[in-house]
Amino acid sequence: QVQLVESGGGLVQPGGSLRLSCAASGSIFRSLIMAWYRQPPGQQRALLAWITPSGSTGYAGSLRGRFTISRDNAKNTVYLQMNNLRPEDTAVYYCKPTTANYWGQGTQVTVSP
């Protein structure tokens, strides 16, 4: 089981930016498709974006252009750059391998004036 530690969340004003990080344990990280998810208050967790070991990416819905997923295999870390944040982006953000059935603790993002 890969250990996951998300960080980088916080309170930001609408239009602001944040970069989330997800540090994972183990060299197996380099062979995993990693993904970011979020769970807004009172809603279900949803997939946002994914990235293959070689760096190919995919995005759910219309997030491409505002959100960018990336990874640094040397640091066992996957990132989510979020720009032009909106109040509806408020959620707990999680990362995990797409094949995993476990979650980290997540990081809270709050977008508010």
Describe this structure in words.
- The protein is mostly beta strands and 113 residues long.
- It has no helices and ten strands.
- The protein has strands at 4-7, 10-12, 18-24, 34-39, 46-51, 57-59, 67-72, 77-82, 91-97, 107-111.
- A six-stranded mixed β-sheet has the order 2-10-9-4-5-6, with no helix packed on it. Strands 1-3-8-7 form a four-stranded antiparallel β-sheet, with no helix packed on it.
- 31% of the residues are buried.
Question: What are the segments in which pLDDT stays under 50 over at least 5 consecutive residues?
Answer: none
Q: Helix and strand succession?
A: EEEEEEEEEE
The number of helical segments is 0
Cα-based radius of gyration, to the nearest Å: 13 Å
How is this structure best summarized?
The protein is 0% helix and 47% strand.
Give short descriptive properties of this protein.
47% strand; 113 residues; four-stranded antiparallel β-sheet; mainly beta; six-stranded mixed β-sheet; globular
Secondary-structure map:
Blueprint: E1 4-7, E2 10-12, E3 18-24, E4 34-39, E5 46-51, E6 57-59, E7 67-72, E8 77-82, E9 91-97, E10 107-111
Parallel strand pairs: 2-10
Antiparallel strand pairs: 1-3, 3-8, 4-5, 4-9, 5-6, 7-8, 9-10
